[in-house]
Design brief:
The structure holds 2 protein chains of 2 kinds. By secondary structure, chain A is mainly alpha-helical. Chain A is built from 12 helices and no strands. Chain B is an alpha/beta fold. Chain B has one domain: 3-Layer(aba) Sandwich (Rossmann fold). In chain B, 29% of the residues lie in helices and 25% in strands. Chain B starts with a strand and ends with a strand. Classes of the chains: A mainly alpha, B alpha/beta.
Chain lengths: 316, 367
């Protein structure tokens, strides 16, 4: 009786599905303390970006300096208990603006990365799988995009999209911040494409891809079921860099004045606002600046941890 | 090196092709054998190109496969031997349809492999010609369970099958190749090289094909594992009655498994015939040199020592006349002018040589 149950247990054990490689990736990632800390910090920021409306102070803007001095209110107040990050030159609570800005920054980064990934990966899979003339055209196109003075072009496009000629302008009603995100994404794909094309070519010349071709699988099936899962680790690792790049690009454009400071708040806008009073209230620049810095740092450290975890050479 | 675009290069190649008669060297070993694969004057040239941004200049062609006529009969094992770089792998890739030929055709029964009439015929060809690969470490998708890899052909060719039927077929084929059904729930990295090669065999056999191309299936394995895989292949070959083209550079392996042997040199078949005839009385000097290089663990076996000098000529600039003339020990002036064609020389053996060898290579000394 006892042996019988033992046998069925054993049978269940050998018939259980082996752990996929993602399981081992998760295990390795969990052991990386810096990576996990960074991941938690990113989670924290994302949660803030979602739930910030219940945290922000409902204070009316008061730009008269020195009012409510006991509680540290008024315009350009230093950080205090009531206003943890001080107030800006309009007397608005900087901490609330910081929380609201997280939404903008993260949203822009996600939309830009999503768009860049959609374009980049589609082109890379096509170029790497079909090769020949198709690859040549796509690679030269990516060269063209890499050689572009992107910042100047972005500014130009933003100005065109904002032109008052509302009748002919299809972007007249698009939120400014969406335009920024789409443009950053539209110029963000060439680096990714180059990286992924190389990977796709390498995986595509392996024997298991030949085997599936011989079986008679369609190109769609080979690309999505066989090649894509095998280049996924590269793509995921690159996502960290790309997200950080998106946040920085948005903040940079906002800092240069290409944003919508009336309707949206973002960390870049805050830095730009605080610049005028840098000598008197350096915290107005430093606090949003460091917020950007820490989030980018966390994303990059997590990206490193992910790359280590995905490296098949570190198998145990 | 770039794959030649067959349409744009045809005129170049056609110039170099003089009128070649349609001869199919080699005779079947059994009387009622049908032809399953017919290779007709197959050529595969790769162009060597120098590339700048706008202009591409073709500097020459690597003649990987240079005019092969071959018939594969049902249920036989044809061994294909030759040194590295002689075009064995290119030939096999062209036969399964991974490479497009520069010239010539490959026919599976009455279907042109490279130009199937419709989707049905394409799938029919795909079902019946399978391949076993050399490297067991890259021939299985590392991200998929073995069961999923084996199920895939069934999904493509028999979409009407239920999940239970597919799993049943997977378990059955796993047991036939000497694995257990629970191995289907493992990933490739959990297997040894020999086990992976068994899975590769299972994948090739699950559609019950008529032809299998085995491209050096055991050369990446340990000798002890080699033997078990070879025996398994032989068992399965008779069980499934499948015709196998067995590519190897190890002559003793080929001798062990094959009914007929074809010897390749620089993109051509130089000798083809039944295994015993080719090994006992080789007629092409190249075959003689290959056989004299097999080590025998038997002191009573005496053999002629034929050691080739020099390297294989570049497949870009082939020597005029017989392509073996630069290394042949029997070379004469006529060899440098005349390119020999495959002719029936002795018994059922065909060879392409003007001065075929008459002497046996191996002697058995009486003690």
């Amino acid at each position: 009786m006892a042996t019988a149950t033992k046998d069925t247990e054993k049978e269940q054990k050998i018939f259980s599905v082996s752990k996929s490689q993602w399981y081992f990736v998760r295990q390795r990632l969990k052991r990386n303390k810096v990576g996990m800390l960074s991941l938690n910090y990113i989670y924290f920021n994302v949660l803030l970006a979602i739930f910030y409306p219940i945290l922000i102070a409902s204070r009316i803007a008061d730009n008269r300096p020195g009012l409510e001095r006991g509680l540290g209110g008024g315009a350009n107040a230093f950080p205090n208990l009531r206003y943890p990050a001080g107030t800006d030159s309009n007397g608005l609570d900087s901490f609330s603006r910081l929380l609201a800005g997280s939404e903008t920054s993260i949203l822009v980064a996600l939309v830009a990365t999503g768009l860049a990934y959609f374009i980049g990966i589609s082109l890379a899979l096509i170029a790497g799988y079909y090769r020949g003339r198709v690859e040549e055209i796509i690679m030269r196109l990516s060269d063209l995009f890499l050689a572009f003075p992107v910042l100047i072009f972005l500014i130009m496009m933003l100005q065109i999209a904002r032109s008052p000629d509302a009748g002919n302008n299809p972007f007249a009603t698009t939120p400014y911040i969406m335009l920024v995100a789409i443009l950053i994404g539209f110029f963000g794909w060439p680096g990714l494409t180059r990286l992924v094309v190389a990977q796709v070519k390498q995986v595509g010349s392996l024997e298991f891809v030949h085997a599936v071709k011989i079986i008679g699988a369609s190109d769609k099936r080979i690309i999505f079921l066989h090649i894509f899962p095998n280049v996924l680790s590269t793509i995921i690792t690159f996502a960290a860099l790309s997200l950080g790049g998106g946040i920085i690009a948005e903040a940079g454009l906002a800092f240069l004045g290409f944003s919508d400071p009336i309707n949206t708040v973002s960390w870049g806008v805050q830095v730009q606002d605080g610049l005028a009073r840098l000598a008197y209230n350096p915290e107005q620049v430093l606090i949003p600046g460091f917020t950007i810095f820490f989030l980018i740092l966390a994303i990059n450290l997590f990206g490193d941890a992910l790359r280590d975890a995905l490296d098949p050479r570190l198998k145990e | 090196m770039e794959d030649t675009d067959s349409s744009s290069n045809n005129h170049v190649i056609e110039e170099s092709v003089s009128e070649i008669e349609e001869v199919f060297p080699g005779s079947p070993t059994s009387a009622n054998a049908e032809v399953v694969i017919e290779v007709r004057n197959l050529r595969k040239y790769f162009s060597i190109q120098s590339k700048s941004l706008l202009f591409t200049k073709t500097l020459g062609y690597i003649k990987a496969v240079d005019g092969i006529d071959l018939q594969l009969f049902s249920g036989e094992v044809l061994g294909l031997v030759g040194e590295s770089g002689c075009g064995k792998s290119t030939l096999s890739k062209t036969i399964v349809g991974l490479e497009k030929p520069s010239l010539g055709q490959v026919w599976y029964r009455d279907a042109n492999i490279h130009q199937p009439i419709d989707k049905v015929e394409r799938l029919q060809i795909r079902r019946n010609i399978q391949m076993v690969f050399q490297d067991p470490y890259t021939s299985l998708n590392p991200r998929r369970l073995i069961k999923d890899t084996l199920e895939e052909p069934l999904l493509i060719h028999h979409p009407e099958m239920t999940k239970e039927d597919r799993l049943g077929a997977v378990y059955k084929i796993l047991q036939q190749v000497g694995l257990e059904s629970y191995h289907g729930y493992r990933y490739p990295h959990e297997f040894s090289g020999g086990q992976r090669q068994r899975v590769g065999l299972a994948r090739a056999l699950i559609m019950n094909p008529e032809v299998i191309l085995a491209d050096e299936p055991v050369s990446a394995l340990d000798v002890s594992v080699q033997a078990s895989i070879l025996n398994l292949m032989q068992d399965l070959q008779s069980e499934f009655n499948v015709a196998i083209i067995f590519i190897a550079h190890d002559l003793s392996v080929v001798k062990h498994v094959s009914n007929r042997v074809a010897v390749m040199y620089l993109g051509r078949i130089v000798e083809i015939g039944p295994t015993e005839e080719v090994f006992d009385r080789p007629s092409h000097p190249y075959t003689v040199s290959l056989i004299s290089a097999i080590p025998f663990a038997d002191p009573t076996v005496k053999k002629r020592k034929v050691i080739l000098e020099g390297d294989v000529p570049s497949p870009v600039n082939l020597p005029p006349g017989c392509r073996f003339s630069s290394r042949c020990y029997k070379v004469q002036d006529r060899c440098k002018e005349e390119d020999p064609i495959l002719e029936l020389k002795r018994g059922n053996t065909w060879s392409a040589c003007l001065f075929p060898e008459d002497e046996p290579v191996l002697f058995f000394e009486e003690r």
